[in-house]
Structure formats: structure tokens, C-alpha cells
């Protein structure tokens, strides 16, 4: 059975294509884009896990996305 890991990230309107392409290159499939609680857009992604039961790659990717959004990492 396929198991999945998930990622949510904010989308910046002026850079949407670059953000989506970046996650796609890392194997993430866009599932949905919704309006966030504060009015911005939020993207939901999924990808199959490596099969080892761990999801540390997904957690690391989410942490990196948060840093980029907050301006802490270019």
C-alpha cells in the first residue's frame, strides 16, 4: 500500500510558478490551493514516502518552506 507524506506552504502571488515548480522538482504533487485564514493562498502537496516509515524529508522540506516564507532563507 502506498503511504503519503504531506506539505502545506503559502504561495506568494508574485512568484507562484517558481514556488510550484520548485516543489514539483522535489517530487511533490500539488493537490489543492485554497485561501488561507489571513487571506493569502496556501498550497497542499503530497508525495509517496520512501517506504521506510519515516517522514523526516517532508518535515525538513516544511521547515525550509517556512524559513523562506518568513524571509530567513533565500
Description:
By secondary structure, this protein is an alpha+beta fold. Helices cover 32% and strands 31% of the residues. It is built from two helices and three strands, in the order βαββα. The chain has a three-stranded antiparallel beta sheet.
Pattern of helices and strands: EHEEH
The percentage of residues in β strands lies in: 25-35%
Which structural class matches the secondary elements?
A: alpha+beta
Mean pLDDT figure: 83
Helix content: 25-40%
The global form is globular
* Strand line-up in the sheet with most strands: 1-3-2
List the helices and strands and how they pair.
Elements: E1 4-11, H1 16-25, E2 29-35, E3 41-48, H2 56-69
Antiparallel strand pairs: 1-3, 2-3
Can you describe this structure in just a few lines?
With 74 residues, the protein is of the alpha+beta class.
Comma- or semicolon-separated keywords:
74 residues; alpha+beta; 3 strands
Amino acid at each position: 500500500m502506498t503511504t503519503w507524506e504531506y506539505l502545506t506552504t503559502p504561495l506568494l502571488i508574485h512568484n507562484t510558478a517558481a514556488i510550484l515548480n520548485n516543489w514539483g522538482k522535489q517530487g511533490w504533487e500539488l493537490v489543492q490551493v485554497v485561501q488561507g485564514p489571513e487571506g493569502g493562498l496556501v498550497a497542499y502537496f503530497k508525495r509517496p514516502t520512501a517506504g521506510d516509515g519515516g517522514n523526516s524529508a517532508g518535515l525538513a522540506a516544511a521547515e525550509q518552506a517556512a524559513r523562506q516564507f518568513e524571509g530567513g532563507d533565500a
